[in-house]
Amino acid sequence: MTDALIEGNHLTKVYGTATGPLVALADVSFAIEEGEFISLVGPSGCGKSTLLSILGGLEERSEGDVALDGEDLDRPRTDIGMMFQTSVLFPWRTVRQNVRLPGIVLGLDAKEQAQKCEELLDLVGLNGFGDRYPSELSGGMRQRVALARLLAHGPRVLLMDEPFGALDEFTRETMNLELLRIWEKTGKTVVFVTHNIGESVFLSDRVFVMTPRPGRLAGTIDVDLPRPRSAQMMRDPRYSELVFEIRGMLGIDH
Ligand SMILES: Nc1ncnc2c1ncn2[C@@H]1O[C@H](COP(=O)(O)OP(=O)(O)OP(=O)(O)O)[C@@H](O)[C@H]1O
């Protein structure tokens, strides 16, 4: 037993495909502490989304164990929230109505949720936009709404699958800084999927480096850069060292 919040042991996932079994994850083991910011980084097809879906209880593992606080993670739970590259907002609902939806679905106290919604809109920088519709917002603003909605029912763990991957570089950088600010304020445990090595180093406490065919955890990198992080940190020689260490683990050090 460890005091980890999330623990995975010998996780394997085999998909049945028309051309035979496909090993998406092979013998992956890890432990994540409460409040950690973890990134999963690796090339396309190394099993990042598969691992995230298993953590979210959306995908069954083929072998191995995975638990949150010692409880088997075999189904979706309300204390784990997921966010994807596209915000999946309901176009006919306003920003406020989208953010309040999880609370309504879960039957949470309406008055408390209404107040929380206003706090969250403030937190993600959308004060004054509550009555807008998603079509009236930029891509970055829509992901801010998705982030507020993710936080609405108070999950302990945020699973984020390339949440800013569809945004332009400027907006993406802004959103990464916003995410760090919110993470520092809320103390959530975050597992963040990206194929951008620099982004993984910039954001994380630890980076899980994954390699494909079959998807394996090649190693874990401790990011010993100070917090709070700022864009200036990318000039730090240690930042480059860590990026190149990961590139080496992925075999792209050419
Ligand atoms: N439902 C499925 N059925 C069959 N094969 C699948 C399924 N989902 C994923 N795979 C395969 O499993 C492997 C891992 O896929 P996964 O999406 O987890 O990788 P990834 O690292 O997230 O990739 P990307 O960065 O492109 O999203 C890939 O070879 C993929 O084709």
UniProtKB/TrEMBL annotation:
Keywords of the record:
ATP-binding, Nucleotide-binding, Transport
The record's GO molecular-function terms, alphabetically, read: ATP binding; ATP hydrolysis activity
Q: Which residues form the ABC transporter domain?
A: 6-237
Q: Provide the leader sequence positions.
A: none
Give the matching Pfam families.
Answer: ABC_tran
Is Nucleotide-binding among this UniProt entry's keywords?
Answer: yes
- Family statement drawn from the similarity comment of this UniProt entry: Belongs to the ABC transporter superfamily.
- Annotated protein name in UniProt: NitT/TauT family transport system ATP-binding protein
Task: Record the organism.
Answer: Bauldia litoralis
